[in-house]
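CHAIN AND CONFORMATION:
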Amino acid sequence: MRPDTPAENVDHAAEAARLERTAGLYPEDAETLLLRAAAHLELSGDRPSATKLYDRLLSSAADSQGLENPSLVRALKASNLWEYGHEAEARAIIDGVRTASPRDPAPWVIAAESLEAHDELEAAHETFTEGARLLLTDVAEPPYSTHPLLYGRHRVRRMLGLPHDEWDALADTLHTMPVSLDELHDPKRVWSLGSDNPADLQAEISRLRAELGAYREALSRPFPVAMLHWPADELTELLEAYPSLSAEYPSYEDHLATTEAALRELAASGTPNLGVVRGTVPSYEAFAASEGASPADATLLPQYATTLAARGRAVAWPPQRGAACWCGSDRPYERCHGENIAADR
């Protein structure tokens, strides 16, 4: 069940409770599942309970579980707090998100849109621009995940009456809907809703349909085509338990090289939305048991990768410029497995 499902078609409170229970069964996926639960709570109108879930996630950052994206959780918490009267706290959290300079575009977009929703257009513009400058400087082809950053910045600049710059032009080229971004983001559109002229109203309906089409396209993008990566210690444990899988993984170095090569081949063939998922032996064994199969069966490996991706475990490939390599080396991707393609990005 997607959180964007209309309230009249789903019991959002019940769905949130179901997701919380599922998070208890799959602690490795708790972050993704609890964020979805919080979204349902917001849609149900129970914003204080959503805040409690965000706080629960943030408190886990101090223990052994940690968080994959604490800035995203903080940005969502700030946006939620502002909606039920906690403006000062929301502003402070947003300032903290900006100071943290996350390498993921989502926190920037959420923080900026929260400011925009409360008519803080100058601050929203600054936030969109900071994120774009951090993530897109010297990037030849903006990753799909950064498109909302460019679109949001374009929208706010139109409302502020600012002239187009290079990033606005880039946003125009990335936008593929029949109605242009300039038309979608025209501040005068709101006035047409009060017009008595049927032609004005029909034109606005066409614009809204195009905007809704873009939104649905973003929501309906498939899960990433994900390659399975075993960290070194996990691969050692896997091969000790199931020696027959050595045919798939002759060595750790070969595993890394094969994974990167497969990702590049998929990208060259035009496959979009690529990602990497990290496997663990306990998780893989549990998956095999759920399928009624032996973990030694190599045909389970791609199914396991797809299942992890469907549960929100995929990390986008290639990583953002300056981000750590997917292999876990802690070196920037450009100086690790992405060294030979850095010039093409």
About this structure: The mean pLDDT is 85. Strands lie at 225-229, 274-278, 315-316.
